[in-house]
Amino acid sequence: MNDTFFFLLSLSIIFAAILGVIRFRKMDPAYHPFVYYCCISVLVEILVYLLLSGNMQYLVGTVYNIFGVVEFWLLIRLFYNWGLFKRKKSVFIAINLFSVLLRAGTLYIRGYDKINYFASIVNAFALIFFSISAFNRMILNERKNIFKNAKFWICIGIIIYYTCFILVSTEKLSFLHLNPSKNFDYKVWQINAYANLLVNLLYAVAVVWIPRKKNIITLF
User: Phi, psi (5° rounding) for residue 87?
Assistant: First the structure.
């Protein structure tokens, strides 16, 4: 399997993006950040593939670092829209400000052209924690079938994806990567690629179950 195969697996997020664009105007606006996230993910996957194909690997780290900030902001905004932070904008701003400062600080130390694994791992733990919290709130407060609930599929997808991401990123930062084995690296990324495919399909299912926006009837 080559880079093109892994690229096609990662590009499976396009299904969720296309469905999101089709349903965008009719869906609950609270889910708009998720559609933005899916669409931007498609663009990033294509851009990174083109950079690698054009022997411009030195720009890949910068692309991923910028995407890391946007990705975190959009997903935190999604949780905010769901009421996870009790609609307190100060909490939303504080979380994102901490993320930006952490990423800027570690990038200053390691270099802006390198993928910021440390900050990304911290963000991943935060997103997993918020997903579990949102999942628990959903179970307690919502009575409809969870398999027809977009929040369920999004939270499950985030938990799976970022758990795998933490494992892969930790391997990149650990002593194992000081004496890397190509076979070991390949197996790690292979597992991550298939997990990414699964999560992207879960996201597509989530978009199908995003509720329609409520029509407000005004009486004059």
Answer: 60, 25
CB distance 121 to 170 below 8 Å: yes
Q: How many CB atoms are located within 10 Å of the residue 68 CB?
A: 19
**Is 202:153 a contact under the CB 8 Å cutoff?**
yes
- How many domains does one find in the chain? 1
* Domain assignment of residue 116, yes or no: yes
Count the Cβ atoms, other than its own, within 10 Å of residue 196: 22
**pTM for this structure?**
0.89
* pLDDT digits 0-9 by tens, 47-84: 999 998 888 888 888 899 899 999 999 999 999 999 99
Residue 219 lies in a domain: no
Whether 42 and 76 have beta carbons less than 8 Å apart is answered as no
Q: Tell me the residue range of the domain where 168 lies.
A: 3-208
pLDDT band, residue 218 (cuts 50/70/90): very low
Neighbour-count burial of 220, counting CB atoms closer than 10 A to its CB (0-12 exposed, 13-18 middle, 19+ buried): exposed
